[in-house]
Design a protein that fits this description.
The chain has 338 residues and is an alpha+beta fold. It has three domains: 124 residues; 147 residues; 36 residues. The protein is 68% helix and 7% strand. A four-stranded antiparallel β-sheet has the order 2-3-1-4. Helix 3 crosses helix 8 and helix 10 runs antiparallel to helix 11. The longest helix is centred in the middle third of the chain and has 65 residues. The chain is elongated. The chain starts with a helix and ends with a helix.
């Protein structure tokens, strides 16, 4: 009865839910949870709450007051029971198309302020972690591409040197007499560049020189691409270090977007300008996606009926158990007396 009265008259908890039209795989959803509930991010939230004089209400309970849920769910129970590999793969490929972030707490008058801080963290701070990860991935990919170009450079130059030597020797050869060449033979090649030795000498020289030009242009194009990747690598490393140095602070994706505009003014190379313009649009899309479907959701009180029912059930079971214990004890005493 005391527990029931306490639950009935205790302050109500309130909640509000932000819905985001975001497609998340199970892997990306788990990554999102790891980022939000990380010690670093929770410390940022705590510092922000203290700065807004909310620490007496929320300090130490942020992790339990913010819940995420994806719809449709990832059918974890069905996945655990699935034995067919094909069905299991289909289940794992399910993508949740709606993300719900539910914030609970009390008192009601502080909920709006608290929820705005949590929402700001989710929409403006967490994307910085994604940006840092993507920049790091881009850096790795660029280094891999540059390594491949460097690895193939020797083979291309060696083949070019070989073609030039063949061309020089062909030019020193005497052409065969036309009277000694049978006129009734017709040659068919699927690739002339691989069978040019069967051509008349003049055509062999022409084909070899054409191959030389092709190799020279390939080497030049590879070098241009290498130089471009080198500049891209330098740019991405600079952006990565910028984000990395400010991740521990309350650095937002909007601030990063503004810094990209300033960075754009420091470059004159058209290719890098185009790359930065495309990257800025990508960041803008990220900002647009992290916008709730309903801008100002309603704050609603959490129903206590479930807890009340649980308390009543517990009390009834406790009374039944106690009565049963007394009855058993009385029966036992009677049997002893008998």
């Amino acid at each position: 009865m005391i527990v029931f009265i306490f639950i009935s008259f205790s302050p109500r908890d309130y909640k509000l839910t932000f819905l985001y039209d975001i497609g998340l795989t199970e892997k990306s959803y788990k990554t999102l949870l790891d980022k939000f509930y990380s010690s670093e991010n929770l410390d940022k939230l705590t510092a922000k709450l203290k700065g807004n004089e909310l620490n007496e209400y929320w300090q130490g309970i942020i992790g339990s007051n913010v819940k995420f849920e994806v719809s449709p769910s990832y059918f974890r129970n069905n996945a655990a029971k699935a034995t067919d590999v094909e069905n299991l793969q289909k289940i794992q490929e399910v993508t949740g198309t709606l993300l719900a972030m539910t914030i609970t707490g009390r008192p009601e008058r502080e909920m709006q302020k608290f929820s705005s801080i949590v929402r700001d963290n989710f929409e403006n701070i967490l994307p910085i972690y994604d940006t840092k990860q993507e920049l790091n991935t881009t850096i790795i990919d660029l280094k891999t591409e540059m390594a491949d170009i460097e690895e193939n450079k020797f083979d291309l130059e060696l083949e070019l040197k070989k073609k030039k030597a063949i061309s020089e020797k062909l030019k020193k050869m005497e052409p065969a007499e036309s009277n000694n060449v049978p006129g009734s033979i017709v040659l068919q090649f699927s690739r002339v560049d691989q069978n040019s030795e069967y051509l008349p000498l003049a055509y062999q020289i022409q084909a070899t020189d054409a191959n030389i030009i092709g190799f020279e242009e390939t080497i030049r194009a590879k070098q241009d691409k290498y130089d471009y990747y080198k500049n891209l690598l330098s740019l991405n490393e600079m952006l990565f270090n910028q984000v990395k140095d400010k991740t521990s602070s309350y650095y937002t994706i909007q601030e990063f977007r503004s810094s990209l505009t300033d960075t754009l003014n420091n470059y004159e190379d058209k290719e890098l300008i185009d790359y930065l313009n495309a990257y800025i649009k990508k960041i803008e899309n990220m900002i647009s996606i992290n916008t709730p479907v309903v801008e100002n959701p309603r704050i609603s009180s959490i129903d206590k009926s479930a807890r009340k029912k649980s308390t009543v059930v517990f009390a009834v079971l406790l009374m039944i158990t106690t009565l049963t214990a007394f009855l058993l004890e009385g029966i036992q005493k009677r049997l002893v007396q008998t």
